[in-house]
Design the sequence.
């Protein structure tokens, strides 16, 4: 990699900004501003820095509506908002999906709009940590803050996740490398363990790598729990791991002072889905009979956890909440986005701050291509190609301030560093406008 | 006896919800009442007559005297027989999600396949499914510790993943094969599977009994061998032949019984 000169040509530094990329929400970023543009970012990882620096690339700048020839044409805000409101007001099974890359402030009118029209509101948890939320509802949530891990943890286990690629500062800022109050020597005072079928970049840094077989998570955790209860293992190899290694690992986990287990989609999306998390949580509960152990899901987007917290607080259900009968309902497989699309039920789809075009399975996308799609986003992406109405928003944490929740459920207020493009509007304003316009249509039709 | 027959005439890709059309509610309804009734579809209600030809014969004094027949495919009709307490419902085709959920009595017969959550939190009555069921038959609500607590579900086809999660009573008989984690978190009740099982029946089970008459691929380490039993009697039911009996899941100090047909499961000995 070529050496790059540090950025020296800037007007001002906006200190302590919060990164709007992954669930680590690093809040120590310095954004260098020149002529109301981001000239550089300090302290961010490559992923966070490139998102902030290349913000203007492929940017959606004006509202657009798809014409009868199938082309997106530029229109004024009133035309685009009216068109979107008309689609929403006339729908029978609308789904409002996304919300994980916008602020809590934008979710509030979004929920009001959902309730008004009897829609389904859902976020990216439906395709990532949804099983985690279900397991937490079943067996509890032995969580902590990342500050506790930094100051106390002497054993860190990453499973089904690869933070060196997906949450690059997680190890250096919160868990493995920082010097903590009780871990004065940083990395040297900690044991890093990775349970992963793949020899990932995180596994390469680890002291212990446990390569259990794919889909072996449940059987592996069950075996550790059996050992903790004093059972002698009968099979020589369990989920691809020799039983001697399981005894040794269990002993090490029992003899730490403070252990933390972090898990990602490798655990939530293998064969036994939410039951992997269920048994991992119960394993952590068992380990607490010997020493202190905690657990935390590695949330992806910077506010995916925020949506779950917001919805649980407001409606009692974390995601996939259906208001079609006038009251909230939550049933995995029935009121969740992918199922509604695969079953071809949804008739109007609004996507805000998400890119289903890039992430959804083929069957769901095939249905999305056949129904009206409203997109509220800042960048042109695969979803824009399917969108019938495009409403350009602003970048939370860079152009607009707002609240988000870090993966350990700590709320952070994200500062703004620059002004948004004149033709764009804040997500909160757009959703509020839609709410008012749908209200007007509903009242007029009474 | 009141015989109500609904014959489909129009398909809706947005599922209809039939939770209000249970014998307990409709035993006093005349044909005109059915024709006036609007069925929930998404966030709206549409007349039932848009979707069904309705025939009503006879009179009923109580829900027990009602026989409701959906004479065709109901693959997009959710909540058939949901919370029903008496009477009879017959579906001559497939049924959608939540068939017989929270049922307390009466009988529901599905002469086709059933989608997920059939018999969720069932408390009584009987569900018979002639075809296959998808995931979570006889299961609990998300986060709830008590799933199916009474009644009987008979599945003549295959059952999907996580059958009878957190079962706390009642009986399930699967004539076909079963996927992973049948009876997970089970505390009471009885599951009989006549076909083959892929993996891990009884994960985190505390009590209750599971009998597998087919071949089990993978057993969890949480189960301790209790011995070989001849002609066991499990929960009052007699089985003939040799069975391998395990007790588990010891991860949760469980005392549940898992019996595997010894002939077909020699590889576990």
Sequence:
């Amino acid at each position: 990699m070529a050496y790059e000169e540090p950025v020296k040509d800037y007007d001002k530094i906006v200190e302590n900004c919060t990164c709007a990329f992954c669930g680590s929400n690093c809040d120590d970023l310095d954004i260098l501003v020149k002529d109301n543009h981001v000239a550089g970012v300090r302290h961010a990882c490559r992923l966070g820095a490139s998102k902030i620096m290349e913000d203007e690339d492929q940017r959606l700048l004006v509202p657009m509506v798809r014409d009868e020839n199938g082309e997106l044409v530029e229109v004024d805000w009133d035309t685009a908002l009216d068109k979107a409101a008309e689609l929403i007001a006339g729908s029978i099974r609308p789904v409002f999906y996304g919300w994980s890359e916008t602020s809590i402030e934008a979710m509030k009118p979004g929920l009001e709009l959902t309730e008004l029209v009897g829609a389904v509101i859902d976020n990216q948890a439906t395709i990532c940590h949804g099983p985690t939320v279900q397991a937490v509802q079943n067996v509890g949530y032995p969580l902590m803050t990342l500050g506790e891990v930094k100051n106390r943890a002497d054993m860190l286990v990453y499973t089904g996740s690869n933070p060196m690629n997906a949450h690059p500062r997680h190890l250096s800022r919160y868990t493995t490398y920082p010097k903590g109050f009780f871990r004065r020597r940083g990395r040297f005072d900690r044991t890093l363990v990775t349970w992963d079928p793949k020899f990932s970049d995180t596994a390469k840094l680890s002291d212990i790598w446990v390569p259990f077989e794919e889909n072996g998570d449940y059987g592996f955790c069950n075996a550790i729990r059996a050992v903790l209860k004093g059972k002698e293992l009968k099979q020589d190899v369990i989920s691809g791991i020799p039983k001697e290694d399981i005894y040794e690992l269990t002993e090490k986990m029992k003899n730490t002072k403070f252990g933390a287990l972090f898990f990602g989609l490798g655990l939530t999306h293998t064969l036994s889905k939410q039951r992997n998390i269920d048994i991992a949580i119960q394993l952590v509960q068992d380990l607490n009979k010997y020493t202190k152990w905690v657990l935390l899901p590695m949330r992806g987007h910077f506010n995916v956890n925020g949506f779950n917290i917001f919805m649980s607080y407001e409606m009692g259900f974390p995601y996939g909440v259906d208001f079609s009968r006038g009251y909230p309902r939550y049933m995995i497989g029935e009121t969740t986005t992918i199922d509604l699309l695969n079953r071809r039920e949804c008739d109007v789809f609004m996507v805000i701050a998400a890119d289903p075009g890039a992430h959804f399975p083929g069957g769901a996308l095939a249905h999305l291509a056949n129904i009206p799609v409203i997109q509220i986003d800042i960048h042109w992406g695969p979803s824009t190609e399917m969108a019938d109405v495009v409403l350009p928003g602003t970048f939370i944490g860079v152009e607009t301030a707002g609240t988000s929740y870090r993966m350990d459920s700590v709320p952070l207020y994200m500062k703004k560093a620059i002004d948004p493009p004149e033709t764009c509007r804040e997500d909160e304003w757009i959703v509020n406008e839609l709410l008012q316009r749908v209200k007007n249509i509903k009242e007029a039709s009474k | 006896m009141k015989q109500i027959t609904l014959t489909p005439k129009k398909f809706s890709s947005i599922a209809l919800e039939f939770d209000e059309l249970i014998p307990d509610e409709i035993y006093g309804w005349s044909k005109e009442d059915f024709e006036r009734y609007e069925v929930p579809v998404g966030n709206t209600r549409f007349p039932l007559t848009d979707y069904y030809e309705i025939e009503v014969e006879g009179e009923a004094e109580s829900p027990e005297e009602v026989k409701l027949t959906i004479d065709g495919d109901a693959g997009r009709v959710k909540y058939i027989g949901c919370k029903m307490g008496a009477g009879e419902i017959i579906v001559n085709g497939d049924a959608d999600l939540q068939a017989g959920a929270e049922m307390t009595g009466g009988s529901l017969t599905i002469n086709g396949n059933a989608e997920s959550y059939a018999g969720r939190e069932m408390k009584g009555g009987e569900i018979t499914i002639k075809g296959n069921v998808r995931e979570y038959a006889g299961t609990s609500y998300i986060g709830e510790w008590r799933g199916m607590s009474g009644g009987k579900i008979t599945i003549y086809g295959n059952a999907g993943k996580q059958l009878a999660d957190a079962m706390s009573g009642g009986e399930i008989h699967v004539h076909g094969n079963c996927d992973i984690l049948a009876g997970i978190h089970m505390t009471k009740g009885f599951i009989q599977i006549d076909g083959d099982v892929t993996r891990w029946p009884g994960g985190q089970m505390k009590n209750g009994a599971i009998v597998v008459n087919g071949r089990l691929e993978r057993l969890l380490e949480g189960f301790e061998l209790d011995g070989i039993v001849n002609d066991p009697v499990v929960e009052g039911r007699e089985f003939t032949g040799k069975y391998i009996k395990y007790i588990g899941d010891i991860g949760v100090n469980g005392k549940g019984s898992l019996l595997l047909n010894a002939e077909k499961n020699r590889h576990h000995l």
